[in-house]
Design goal:
Blueprint lengths: L1 H24 L5 H10 L19 H11 L12 H4 L44 H10 L8 H11 L1 H8 L18 H9 L2 H22 L3 E2 L3 H11 L2 H7 L2 H11 L18 E2 L15 H10 L17 H4 L12 E2 L21 H10 L17 H11 L6 E2 L11
Antiparallel strand pairs: 1-4, 2-3
Amino acid sequence: MMRIDKRAAFVLLAILGLALLAAASGPQWSQQERAELRELSIDRLPPPPADPSNRAADNERAAELGQRLFFDQRLSANGQVACASCHLPDKLFQDGTRFGKGVGTTDRRTMTIIGTAHSPWQFWDGRKDSQWSQALGPLESAVEHGGDRTQYVHLVAEAYRAEYESVFGKLPQLAGLPRHAGPVPEPKAAAAWRALEPAQKDSVNRVFANVGKAIAAYERRIEAGPARFDAYVAAVETGDAAKMDAAMTRDEIAGLKLFLGKAQCVQCHAGPLFTNNEFHNTGVPAARGLAADLGRLAGAKQVLDDEFNCLGPYSDARPEQCGEIRFLDAGNSHQLRQFRVPSLRNVAERAPYMHAGQFATLREVVAHYNRAPAAPAGHSELKPLGLSAREVDQLVAFLGTLSGPVRADAKWLQAPAP
């Protein structure tokens, strides 16, 4: 009898020891899960891909000019709005408001520019196919910068001539060019634009396009930096239990397991920037008081019609280098209310959420995905997840581990000296 008791005690101690060892070494990850973790690490993020449509994309002088333009409030109708008015460096290059505010108020949330050089499409609906083309849209928007093309060309000639010509060559002759003209909503500027000769319009458009290309050269230098999650992945790779424990809590790790598994987040939020750069209808409710937002259905048509797209006359690319837009599938009904998947890097610092700021907190976002309600229009791709209240909390906790610094030389993270 005594021998049986000792044997049972020995087995119990062995089980307890194994349990303690497992607890000390942290959660176990399968080979497949380790591979998925590696793919999400910021260390796997390559340099920004080449942009053949912008020959100045990696030109340092172009970036310096672009930085000045990015912070210049004279690039607006009222002299009070710059790119940096909505893309604030100290707010992760976004504004923290539900709708972007320029000379008026937009009907969408400002997206961060961090890491956008890695995406083939810009804006929530993908209506632009490059950073430089994206930069041009707000400049002529009646509710963002509110200006016009000849206004910007005159500003470049008067304030940035030397910097511009060192990158893009000699400015065209501007004698007789109206101070305000462009294909914009403002009636007088629109009429002045229609009165210009085709050659004049082309000269203005080339300078205008180069303004966008300089701004893009600056924005390409703004990247996402490492977060606690990345420290955790590095520790998993080396099997360092102490560093794993220092990087993430048990609930955060449980949330990570949900992210990869039951919650299915990684299906769309994949890769080092936690986005597949594609478009999805996830049943997000319509914003009250606003016109119906068609999302990608409208954006795909707009980018094809855009004179500043990769195939347009102001692109530096050859047609065969424009694969994304050449093979773009546009006009299909399944694109209704699809919106671009945003990066989850620093997502905990970027409330409110979704294309029109419909959700105030990450917990509301996760709760929406957990419920998977029907879409207000089109077809939602979501299915109920069946997460418990604790699992929702764990998933939210994990998302907080993706917060990290902006990776860029310090000089790019503030307005340039006069």
